Amino acid sequence: MTAKPALVETPPVTRDMQGPVMRLTLSNPPANALSIATMEAMMEALKDARNDEAVRVIVIAAAGKVFSAGHDLKEMTLHRADEDRGRAFFEKTMRLCAEMMQMIVTHPKPVIAEIDGLATAAGCQLVASCDLAVCTDTSSFATPGVNIGLFCSTPMVALSRNVHRKQAMEMLLTGEQIDASTAKEFGLVNRIVPKEYLNQVVQKYAEVIASKSPLTLKTGKEAFYRQAEMSLSDAYDYCANVMVENMMFRDAEEGIGAFLQKRKPEWKGE
C-alpha cells in the first residue's frame, strides 16, 4: 500500500520575492483573521525585511475573497473560559496588534496594501496602517465592531489618521460597509483597479518606488509620520533639518548630478 503524502500546513503568512518587492500574503482564508499566529508571522517577516537590502518595497496581500476580517473572534471567545474571563489574552492580542501596526508605520521600507475583497475591523486597520493602498473595484471596507458591542477603538487610531474625522466617525458609529469608490473618496485607498489587473498594477507601482534611493525613501517615510504629529512651526523646523541632512547624502549628490547631466542615477544607499 502506498502511503499518503503528509499534508503540509500553509503558514498564516507566506513570503514571495518578485524582483525588489517582497509580497507578504495572508494565507488563512476564508477570513484571513489576525490571530496571534498570523500577527507573529507578519511581524517576523517585517523584521526580516528591515535589514534585507534585496527588499526595497513590501506588499501585503491576501488569499481568497476576504482581505482580512480582523481579529480571530473564535480564538478570543475560547479564552472567555479562562479564570480571568480572557482579559490577559485580550490584552496580549490588542498589544500585539498595536505593535504590528506601528511596525508597518515605522518600517524603513514603503508598505503597500493590495486589497481584493472585504477588509473589516483590524483588517481595515491594516489597510489604513500601510503607506499606500490599492484595491479592486469590488472591494469593501468596514469597522463593524459597534454591531457586536465592541467599538473598533484600535482600528480608529489608524483610520482617524488617514481619513477625515467625520468620515472616520461615520464608519465607526454605523459599522456599515463602504465600497471602493467611497474608500477612495474618504482617502483610505489610493487607487482602484479591475480585479484582473490588481497584481500587475501593484507590482508596477511598487517597482517605480523601488527604483528610488532606499536611503531617501527611509528618510522621507520617517519624516512624513513624525512631522504629521507636530505643530506647523515644529514641523517646518524638523523638516528643514531633515532636508539639510538629506542634501548631504551621497545619493542626493548623485541624483542631482544625474538630473543635471540627463542620465540615470546609480544609488549607493549612502
Automatic annotation (TrEMBL):
Record-linked Pfam families: ECH_1 (PF00378)
The keyword Lyase appears for this protein: yes
Described function: May play a role in fatty acid biosynthesis and insulin sensitivity.
Protein name: Enoyl-CoA hydratase domain-containing protein 3, mitochondrial
CDD domains: crotonase-like
Source organism per UniProt: Oricola thermophila
Keywords, comma-separated and alphabetical: Fatty acid metabolism, Lipid metabolism, Lyase, Transit peptide
Keyword Iron tagged: no
Family: Belongs to the enoyl-CoA hydratase/isomerase family.
One BP annotation, GO: fatty acid metabolic process
PANTHER family assigned: ENOYL-COA HYDRATASE DOMAIN-CONTAINING PROTEIN 3, MITOCHONDRIAL, PTHR43602
MF terms (GO), sorted A to Z: hydro-lyase activity
